[in-house]
Design a protein that fits this description.
The chain is an alpha+beta fold. It folds into 2 domains: about 150 residues, no CATH class; about 300 residues, Aminopeptidase. The chain is about 30% helix and about 20% strand. It has 12 helices and 20 strands. The strands form 6 sheets. The chain has a 6-stranded mixed β-sheet with strand order 11-12-15-13-16-19, sandwiched between helices. Strand 17, helix 10 and strand 18 form a beta-alpha-beta unit. Helix 4 packs parallel to helix 10 and helix 5 packs antiparallel against helix 12. It binds 2-acetamido-2-deoxy-beta-D-glucopyranose (3 copies) and zinc ion. The site of one 2-acetamido-2-deoxy-beta-D-glucopyranose has 7 residues, from helix 4 and strand 16. The site of one 2-acetamido-2-deoxy-beta-D-glucopyranose has 2 residues, from loops. Keywords: Hydrolase, Metal-binding, Protease, Signal, Zinc. Its EC number is 3.4.-.-. GO terms for molecular function: metal ion binding; metalloexopeptidase activity. One of its GO terms (biological process) is proteolysis.
Length: about 475
């Protein structure tokens, strides 16, 4: 039987710092997406020999890394150490040792069976892996399909994996017209007491109930893990669908890859005839500690999920109707490399959807001792005008937040950015990740530093941005 092969031995991999100028060349046809290494955004290409030869004559080529695969490639996986605060790094942690330990696990067959996470198994790795590119904080690996599916479960703390797509992806810049719309909203933005009354009514007690269901801390939901393959993620998906529908939205569970829990896509119809669509999102899947079956994802990304649910509940409570289509989406497969959002953004692009603003909320709750409540916005991946809009809305409606940029890059908004939709992200800190429970089985909501008031402040910003950019009427 011939395994499903992405590229035969001899394939050329090219990794180079992202620049829009890269796409003015033959490389465009062999683009496999952008990947981060904690500091830089890199683009991955798989050019043929002729393209490589003509391209390497260019000046840009001097910063490119080129590798040739010695084995057939089934699946490429990018792994990176996330940008985390130095306070989280122990004296003994070294990127090199962590990564070597991971490579060892990758080549050692092992089964980790758990009650709620039956697929927490590292399959036989007959193919082995091939290391194609490596820096101290990132690597590009070729692995078998089986290994790829569960690779996130054997990564060391603070490391994250992204599955590289199985076909080349296009590069679609955000169209000038789309940016114009955001600029128009920005130019007319000013304090509106009606908007303030709506966003101030976001309910913290309700958020506390909701997050305790999603993490399983309520002792009733039975959710142990919302890992994309775990039973708990399906419980969460059905529950989210029902809760969003309670608020007047029409929801669909949209599967995107076999074995993965589905995306939960909810829509409110506009009261005028328009194709303009504002989309707010979060990812409801989670990750736990290596070897543990518990993945409560209280902050990552239960906090973003409860924020968009709180927004839905507020839309219902205040009888908000929109002058634009509004979608609230909870993605799955984020932890395996933005897989749910990539599939959905691709679908929207194929449908020629008119997404006017997209905002992903990922990790809103953690506030380090002694720090003020904050709102972090993406330094690299995102549409500057949308990021500016969110920053301005924050200054107006949540002045308690200190707004700044973060290098903790890249959640599901990257999938939309790649498809040329105006997008940004909201995050809990104007700096690298400081949550000591990041990707940890202890990521509960009932703990030191988990700040519901900060989540509310950020949710106010999301909802106010939605109201200002979509246009609205209140019926209550
Ligand atoms: C969306 O509506 C605008 C204005 O009516 C129209 O010009 C445009 O073609 C529509 N776009 C799509 C993709 O249907
Ligand atoms: C998208 O909607 C906005 C807001 O209504 C409109 O200005 C713009 O022309 C639309 N774009 C497309 C491509 O239909
Ligand atoms: C938005 O923020 C920028 C930069 O901080 C500021 O110059 C501008 O006046 C703000 N605009 C509004 C409408 O608040
Ligand atoms: Zn996340």
């Amino acid at each position: 039987m011939v395994a499903n092969v992405l590229a035969a031995a001899g394939a050329i991999l090219l990794v180079t710092p992202f620049s829009p100028a890269l796409f003015d060349s033959c490389l465009l046809a062999s683009y496999y997406g952008n990947y981060n290494d904690g500091q830089t955004t890199n683009s991955v290409f798989m050019p043929d020999a002729a393209c490589l030869e003509s391209w390497t004559a260019q000046a840009l080529a001097s910063s490119a890394f080129i590798a040739e695969a010695t084995q057939d490639i089934q699946q490429l996986v990018w792994v990176e150490h996330k940008a985390v605060d130095p306070s989280l790094m122990t004296a003994t942690s070294s990127f090199r040792n962590e990564f070597d330990g991971f490579l060892q696990r990758l080549s050692t067959p092992k089964r980790v069976l758990g009650r709620d996470q039956e697929v927490l198994a590292v399959p036989e790795n007959k193919m082995g892996y091939e290391l194609l590119y490596q820096t101290p904080t990132a690597a590009l690996l070729s692995v078998s399909h089986g290994t790829a599916r569960t690779i996130d479960t054997i990564l060391p703390r603070f490391w994250k994996s992204s599955l590289v797509p199985s076909t080349a992806v296009g590069f679609v810049p955000v169209p000038v017209d789309a940016v114009k719309h955001v600029k128009r909203v920005l130019s007319t933005l000013r304090f509106n007491p009606e908007v303030a009354a709506v966003v101030d009514s976001i309910s913290v007690p309700q958020m506390i109930n909701d997050i305790r269901f999603l993490t399983g801390e309520d002792g009733v939901s039975g959710i142990m893990s919302r890992h994309s393959f775990a039973e708990g993620s399906r419980t969460a998906a059905s529950w989210l669908k029902a809760r969003f529908e309670d608020t007047g939205a029409t929801c669909e569970l949209q599967p995107f890859l076999l074995g993965f829990a589905p995306n939960v896509v909810c829509a409110y119809p506009p009261i005028v005839d328009t194709n303009a669509t504002v989309l707010l999102s979060a990812h409801y899947d989670s990750r736990g500690s290596f070897g543990s079956t518990r993945a409560p994802g209280g902050d990552d990304d239960g906090s973003g999920t409860m924020a968009i649910l709180a927004i839905a509940r507020t839309i219902k409570r205040k009888g908000v109707k929109f002058h634009s289509n509004v979608q609230l989406v909870a993605f799955a497969g984020e932890e395996q490399g933005l897989l749910g959002s990539k599939a959905y953004a691709r679908k929207l692009r194929e449908e020629d959807a008119n997404i006017t603003v997209m905002i992903q909320a990922d990790m809103l709750a953690y506030r380090a001792a002694g720090e003020p409540p904050q709102l972090g916005l993406p330094e690299t991946i995102g549409t500057p005008e949308v990021t500016q809009l969110v920053a301005n809305v924050s200054a107006i409606y949540s002045p308690e937040l200190r707004v700044g940029y973060t290098a903790a890059c890249c959640s599901d908004h990257q999938s939309f950015h790649e498809q040329g939709f105006p997008a940004t992200q909201v995050f809990e800190r104007a700096g690298p990740i400081a949550d000591p429970m990041y990707h940890n089985s202890g990521d509960l909501s009932d703990r030191e530093g988990y700040d519901f008031d900060q989540v509310k402040s950020i949710a106010k910003v999301q909802l106010a941005t939605l109201l200002h950019s979509a246009g609205y009427e209140l019926s209550q």
